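#struct-help
A.M.: can someone run this one for me? Single chain, 410 residues.
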Amino acid sequence: MTDANRDVVAIARGARAGQHPPMDSLEHDTPTVATPFAGTTMLDPSYGWWPYVNLIYLFFVFLPLLFQPDTSPRAWIASTIAVVLFLPVYFLGWRSERWRVPALLATAALGYALIPFNPGGNSLLIYAMVFAGYMLPLRTAIGTSLALLALLAAQVVWLGYPLAFVAITAVIGGMVLSGILMSRNEARHNAELRLGQDEIKRLARAHERERIARDLHDLLGHTLSLIAVKAELARKLVERGAPGAAGEIAEVERVAREALTQVRCAVADMRGAGFAPTCDNVCAVLAGTGIEVARETAAAPALREDADQALAWVLRECVTNILRHAQASHVAIRVRSADRQVVLEVTDDGRGSAGPEGQGIRGMRERMVALGGGLAIETSDAGGTRVRASVPLAAKFAASAAGPVAVLGS
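D.P.: on it. Structure tokens below:
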């Protein structure tokens, strides 16, 4: 896994644990997605209609005029002109990224120009703070909003308005700006979480493809090679008219049937077959080949599904190796609990094996180690092999309300 992939997975895990990204992360470009506006980019589809809804607050531009008994017509005319000029600037700022900063500055200028005629012009300054919150990085948005308030304070002092006018604008604008920045942080958090989840799914699919490829190689690689060799030998015997061709063809048939059985077992594993049905299946296969089977699994404990299927895979691999190499006449399958572990033992009286570990044994060992268990293989001088696979009866694997369990044997 690359460093980028590790970072993405860490982000997803942290998000699941309730650890949100810091607000400083807004210094980077915020993910944007399309909205119902042509050419508009916003943070999240849920905000798609907010630019229209926000226009309702233009009512507050005219609200102070309604409570002034001596309001002059100039105030109404100036307010109307300011709003008419504001609307195209407002939508231009939402629709075109390169016009965002000019739209912010133009909106603020309209507000400052209107305030001498109508104190409600401070509403346009709040719209400018909205632009800053949505369209600028975190620190730039806060700095711009503070600068707008500082200029407003200077204008209020020059016009002789009460300073409470600045305080009201600062409180309302600060609340609006804080809400916007929090929504941006949440949108970024959600985007990172979705990215992390997608990456985890991709890695899981890649892991599953690797597992299937390994299983198919373990199952069919040796068998198909053996079939090819036997078929070639039979062809040469037929060409020479030598005896033994029929025996080689019969051997090819036997190996092909074994391969078919192994593929069926593998398909059962991919479908999620647990230990109990797998044990029934392999016992029937062994009995069908004339091998005596002793089975002791009735007292087996319950395991979570992952450990149950892993032991099922080990059992299938053991039986496959017995059919391929052991030339055994007796096989014992036993499951027991010991030292807070579930132990599977598969013993045969065949010829044993002193060679290096193959892909199948390495695959079994990897599965057991991944579950916190282990794999041991014992071969005696007199012949016979014992495979012991174990998984811990820990909280992760033991029967509990945290997840599904499966009974190993019956």
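A.M.: thanks! The mean pLDDT is 75.
D.P.: also worth noting: The beta strands are 33-34, 41-42, 292-296, 302-304, 330-338, 341-348, 374-379, 385-392, 405-407.
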